[in-house]
Amino acid sequence: MTARAPQPMWSWTGAVAPVHGAGAGARDTLATGAFAPTYSANFAASTTLDATAMSTPAALHELRGLSMGTTWSVKLIAPVSALIGLERGIQAMLDQVVAQMSTWETDSDISRYNRATAGSAHVLPAPFAEVLHAALALAADTDGAYDPTIGPLADLWGFGPAGARTRAPAAAPLAQARERVDWRRLHFDPLARVLSQPGGAYLDFSSIAKGYGVDRVADWLLAHGVADCLVEVGGELRAHGRKPDGSAWRIAVEQPGREDEAAAVIALDNLSIATSGDYRRYFEPSSFEHTGGERSGAPTGCAHRYSHTLDPRTGAPIDNAVASVTVLHERCMHADALATALTVLGARAGLAYANRRQLAALFVLREGEGFVTRATPGFVARQRSA
């Protein structure tokens, strides 16, 4: 495993970051437990604000905290008297997502479903059902390039709560895990919010839950009178309104391998941005030797870097020219999941899908010893307006 030094607690993470002057994207150091829960004492706190607190003069403030094994940060224009209530409400929104959708928490709704017996039926909380509905729709639309049942593979390759690993899995357990990964095995009634457990299904929302958390926070802030805000959770962002000087929230997309250079700069207003990439989180096996003479799921005797982005169709980490994909969307949940799906699809199929669906997407591709970018017309239009 290639270890990376942890970042300062309150740094921006992810491949996108707010622009300060000519600054580019900040580093992304997601821990192996990138969706591990961090509960707050304010989980049971009221998520309503005192109306008088929002009636006093407002100014630009920044609130910060921990959730989903990473950091969150919110820049907003609000009265100082409202900040304590706003911070509690933000944390409560994120804590709810963790309590329902974190596979790292044994008592979460998703973990209880994953352990359930075959044939059991489960009435899901509304947020859980909303995320599952979106995930299954994308799985169908990408013909399985995106799959929320990828949990067994994430664990096997060392990117889930089962813990990190330093070598590729053996062929037999890999084949067993692949048998459990198929979104078409799920029977879900979105109106009744009832999901059946076919036996061995293991949901993993790591590629969509952070984006959903961003949406929950942004929606809550808007509902409580905060019209100007920039919400970030683990590098996924959504912005509304303007800064105090009237300028837009400008976001830099990191250029892989060039931390002082931005691949693009985008102005966000009523818009979200999310990036998926394999140049930050991966492992390099220290050995391909396995006991018992069993061959691994990868070639022996050669060095290889394994991305944390898994292709559910092959059961293995992606091995294509895509270094990162950035997606713009009104909802961060969709931007988050789409960025992963396009990364799995690869340069040609991913760009074709993005253009067919009229997505605003930026692909950073490996070419020789460097990188090249390919953007859809929708992304170019947003970039020109920045």
From TrEMBL:
Its cofactor is Mg(2+). It is an enzyme of class 2 (transferase). It holds the Pfam family ApbE. Gene3D superfamilies: ApbE-like domains. GO terms for molecular function: transferase activity. InterPro entries: ApbE (IPR024932), ApbE-like_sf (IPR003374). Its EC number is 2.7.1.180. The keyword Cell cycle does not apply. Keywords: FAD, Flavoprotein, Magnesium, Metal-binding, Transferase. It catalyses: L-threonyl-[protein] + FAD = FMN-L-threonyl-[protein] + AMP + H(+). Belongs to the ApbE family. This is FAD:protein FMN transferase. It comes from Lysobacter yananisis.
